[in-house]
Amino acid sequence: MDDKQAIEQSLAIMSKLRDPESGCPWDLKQDFKSIVPHTLEEAYEVADCIEKGELTELKSELGDLLFQVIFYAQLAKEQGLFDFADVANTLNDKLVRRHPHVFAEQSELTDAELSEQWQAIKAQERAEKAASPQMSLWQDIPDAMPGLSKAKKIQQRVASLGFDWPSYHGALDKVAEEVDEVKEALAHDPYSEHSAEELGDLLFATVNVARHIKRDPEQLLRSANAKFASRFEKVAAYLDERGQSLETASLEEMDNAWEAIKKQAK
Length: 266
Prior knowledge:
By secondary structure, the protein is mainly α. Helices cover about 75% and strands about 0% of the residues.
């Protein structure tokens, strides 16, 4: 079965699932909003598959993510808004428009020039969607986007306007400044709104450092989460080998086990 036939079959299956007479009761109950949590879950499962190197499972996870797109397209078709072909055509037009160096000019650009071109094209698209630049500045950054990713998007946007540190050094100095402000706020009242605000500023500044060194903050934090979880499991095993457990060990004993595991990892 070729690509076109496979897609047509998927669309036909989705249409059958939504058939009012013979469709699936669960699928028939869904609407745009109710599917969103499933879409986010499937996207994270794709990311998890890739980060764990489980590429044999990637085909299945990508299929689950594609199903989400097909589902939205079916709902839109039923409401006379658009269909799957419209989605694909819009994507195709956007890809060609955003890559003039490939489809129009056939020119080689540096990474910096590519980034500048990309931001200019995106800015033009935003301007066309809004009545004024002020209204369009953040409108394509979703409110529901994870905080770290949204911080990176905001920083990229203002950087494209020239508001940015020339290198990571300035961003790192800002982190040190924010750490001092957090310390001061916590010393005054660790549970105050001001302390919470300063911690938020510290997180935002840290994202800026990650952006400057070409790293994705969400991915960095996921990796840190995985590393911590793995190491703590080894702490539990370390204690178990010595006749202890996480429930009975003191903080000092757990800390000693932690340090021992860190040394083994080096």
